[in-house]
Amino acid sequence: MRNRLISTVGTSLLNNIRNLRGEDAEKYASLKKHADDGNWGQVKVELLKIDPSERVCGAEINSIADAVKRAKLAQLEFIEFLVSDTEDGRIMGNLLENYFTERAIEDLETLQNVKVRTIEDLQDEKPARFKVYGLRNLVRELGKIVNQCGADTLVIDATGGYKAQIAVAVVFGQALSIPVLYRHEKFSEIIDFPPMPITFEYDLLGKNADLLAEFERGNTLTRSEIDDLDEKVRVLLEEIEVDGENVFALGAVGQIFLTGFRLRFPHSRELKEVTEQAKSEPSFTDDHFPHGFKEFVRKVWSETPWIKTCHSVPYERQKAIKGISFYVRERKLFGTFRDKDKFGARFEILTDAEGEDQLAWAADQLNQTYGSSN
């Protein structure tokens, strides 16, 4: 049952109040005065007296009221408001939490809990941080909610907020088969984006798991460094300016790609735990290896129940090794290691993985657990 609502939040309510003019200013004089004085508790009291369909109540209240009226949220029990990392965002979060806690909308008797999440870096003072980190943090918070509640309990109201924020929420919902609602101020009613069969090529994740992990850790690449990059991976990146130079970082779509995969393949049951009899000590050639390499390989092997064994592989493109990472090539799982002297080596990891999804899952899990740049 879809009884949980995630609502993106903007500032239309505050802007509507601040911009009241003429007859509307007279009609809502008390509302405007309390807002001008920063008396938000009394603003909430005044809002409770107004029909929630009135435009002055703002996008979030308008759209939720309409969705309840049209039975799109007939059994709504929980609301999570996602607000911007701004003073107005915090004011909006507090107002909406208090307003809906009062069960102010008719036919919303089932509502039990209202929660507000502030999305770090979702602000308009630093566009570069908004573009990369703010939108990615929005995706992460959406992912946390899905992980906690399950996609089949959720509906997303993507009416309020920055245009990019709304777009990301819509794509996220489509990627995870979550219904998305939207109500433009000129629309007479709310509309919905039903779940669509959007899929990602997750073998792309396996092949580029090491690179995507680097990006997720906040690293960037210059244009020359991505010349040989698969065009499908470039779609997941955003170009930003850092210290006067244009570089590429993981974008919101890239974060949706990673988060969507992890939510679809969340558990270690994707790979079977190997028996003690099937597990054998890692093996190494007589080559000279980086300091700590053998110890690290044994650590990964001993701590990961679905790894059967590991073995070193011949040196190849050694200078390209930038740290500890994991990736898939030709349906095989590999790891890399580099010591403090920048001396690197690779090793193959043997599992019972049967397909690209499982191999990609394994590479992503290992990158999250052991991956690092050095």
Quick structural overview:
The protein has 374 residues and is of the alpha/beta class.
Identify the notable features of this structure and list them briefly.
single chain, 374 residues, alpha/beta, Rossmann fold, 2 domains, 6-stranded mixed β-sheet, 5-stranded antiparallel β-sheet, elongated
Structure in words:
The protein has helices at residues 12-18, 22-27, 29-36, 40-47, 58-69, 87-101, 127-149, 163-175, 203-207, 209-216, 231-234, 252-264, 293-303, 356-370; strands spanning 4-8, 78-83, 113-118, 154-157, 180-182, 191-193, 221-222, 237-242, 245-250, 309-312, 323-329, 332-338, 344-350, 372-373. With 374 residues, it is α/β, with parallel strands linked by helices. The chain has a 6-stranded mixed beta sheet, sandwiched between helices. Strands 10-13-12-11-14 form a 5-stranded antiparallel beta sheet. Strand 12 and strand 13 form a beta hairpin. Helix 3 runs antiparallel to helix 4 (40-47), helix 7 (127-149) packs parallel to helix 8 (163-175) and helix 8 (163-175) packs parallel to helix 12 (252-264). The chain is elongated.
Rg from alpha-carbon coordinates: 25 Å
- CATH A-level architecture of the largest domain: 3-Layer(aba) Sandwich
Strand order of the largest sheet: 3-2-1-4-5-6
- Which bin fits the share of residues in helices? 25-40%
List the helices and strands in order: EHHHHHEHEHEHEEHHEHEEHHEEEEHE
Q: Briefly note the CATH topology name of the largest domain.
A: Rossmann fold
Give the termini distance in whole angstroms: 47 Å
Coarse shape = elongated
Mean pLDDT over all positions: 89
The low-pLDDT segments are none
Instruction: Name the beta content range.
Output: 15-25%
Number of E-state strands: 14
Number of helices in the DSSP assignment? 14
By secondary-structure content and strand pairing, the structural class works out as: alpha/beta
Annotated CATH homologous superfamily of the largest domain:
Hypothetical protein VC1899 like domain (Restriction endonuclease-like)
Count of the domains: 2
CATH structural class of the largest domain: Alpha Beta
Largest sheet: 6 strands, mixed
